[in-house]
Amino acid sequence: MKQMGLRKWLPLLVLALALFISVLDSTIITISVRAIVGDLHTTLKMVQWIITGYSLVVGAFMLTGGRLGDIFGRKRMFLLGAIIFGIGSIFASQSHTARSLLVSVSLIEGLGAALMTPCTAALIAAEYRGKDRAIAFGVYGAVAGAAATAGPIIGGFLTTNYSWRWNYLINPAVVVVLLLGSVVLHETQDRHAYWPDMLSIILSALGLGGVVYGIIESSTYGWIRAKAPYELFNHLYHFHGVSISPYSILIGLGLIGIFLWRQMNLERRGKPPLVSLVLFRNVQFVASICVVGLIALTQFGLIFALPVFYEGLLGKDALHTGLAVLPLTLSMLVSAPIAGILVGKEKATPKQVTQFGLVVMLLGTFFLYKELGVHSTIWTPMPGMTLFGLGFGCGFSQLSNLALSSVSTRQAGEASGVNNTFRLIGTSLGQALVGALLISALTTRLTGDIANSRTLPQAAKPQITASAITAAESLGTVTASRQHNAEITNAITRIKNDAIAHSAQMGIVGTGIAGAVALVASTRLPRHAMESDEE
């Protein structure tokens, strides 16, 4: 009987491991920012692109990956995605430029995860029934949380004791285990599967990419008025003094609008769309997925901002930074099952638990804003992180349940895909938006404080500004010039540290605003799970 029990859960072990590495790669690199910047001689913004690009590609192609699994077989797509993911990881570990790392992680790894991840949930649904399925999906969700928790610790340990490259070298070994373990999986596919509309895929990917590009580049070119001419392939474009950011965001939104029109037109002609807009007529479902995206935005925005503070201001290595943010992730794991127990015993509704969690998250962001300063220690932000994590665990734990409970059983599969897509888009936008606010605040504060300083010599201020911005964006120390005495060097260091603290606070403000919007949107959530089982 024990052997039979082990055999029964072997498919779950394989599929959960696949989910673990795909989620792990969205957090493991955040703790290695300074090491990557120093090794590849790049900037904080470029690493932001690498982190954001991975989530963006996975989110943009998640529905397509699920649809291809329906057509060609979920096990086949799962294996193909795992192989592509492993190849991307090998390329990433051998990258010697930031651009090659961007391509390896964002495009190749991201594409592999987009093919692999949606098939894991579908394969679990095919492997298990009844109570076993409920247990399997409970473990599946817990693994996602564990991966997010383990990312900073694993990444910090490997980066500090070996190299940031080992963050990616562990993936091919896991992929080999997945390939060997796949013998316990059974092939499934949808008898009524249809080929995804290629134009819809292109429009959605370009639209999301345009919005994210505009947000990230705002830190360099400004939100509205151009800080500098836009450079593309060694050519400068001025756009009448307007930044490239609003153009890019508007073009991206326009493409998303055309994508939605395309879906509506396909449905009208009786052809299957990539996403059925019928789902978006359901106000409760729309509210649920919007809250999912906004909460993901706050979580990953915060995960981007905190390592900048710990490494850039406090000078901590990757391991100690990972340990410092452990209260954030551990408190999430503590509060999520407690929230589930409260709902299960009918002590509170899923909506009440979610809204309570959002309020606690906002309290956490307030405390973090007050706690991050030039005189902070490694311990100072822990109360705010713990509060945020407790709130996040409560707020996020019931959202998927609420989203799927607001649609009919027949729509549940597609609704789940849309829900996961919004989560990944929120992840990408969180890293992009909070990163842009942080970097923009950093450079603006540095430039202003140096210009207003009475200690620094006026003639040297342009050169000092350039070197201080370079040091801050690389999370490094200010290198003293031979012409600078100790007083000037100390003044530059104080200005740089103050700018990093201020920029981290602005990142926290961004997460707080997103959390407040999520709280407002949560008023339209369904009161109870499983309210509706029919259209």
Largest sheet: 2 strands, antiparallel
The chain-level structural class is mainly alpha
What's the helix-strand series?
HHHHHHHHEEHHHHHHHHHH
| Overall average pLDDT | 83
Separate helix tally: 18
Shape, principal axes of CA atoms = globular
Structure in words:
The protein has helices at 2-24, 33-40, 44-72, 74-93, 98-127, 130-161, 166-181, 198-221, 244-268, 283-313, 318-324, 326-344, 350-371, 382-397, 399-405, 412-452, 461-473, 486-521; strands spanning 230-232, 235-237. The chain is globular. Helices cover 75% and strands 1% of the residues. The two termini are 43 Å apart. Mean pLDDT is 83; it is low at 531-535. It is mostly helical. Strand 1 and strand 2 (235-237) form a beta hairpin.
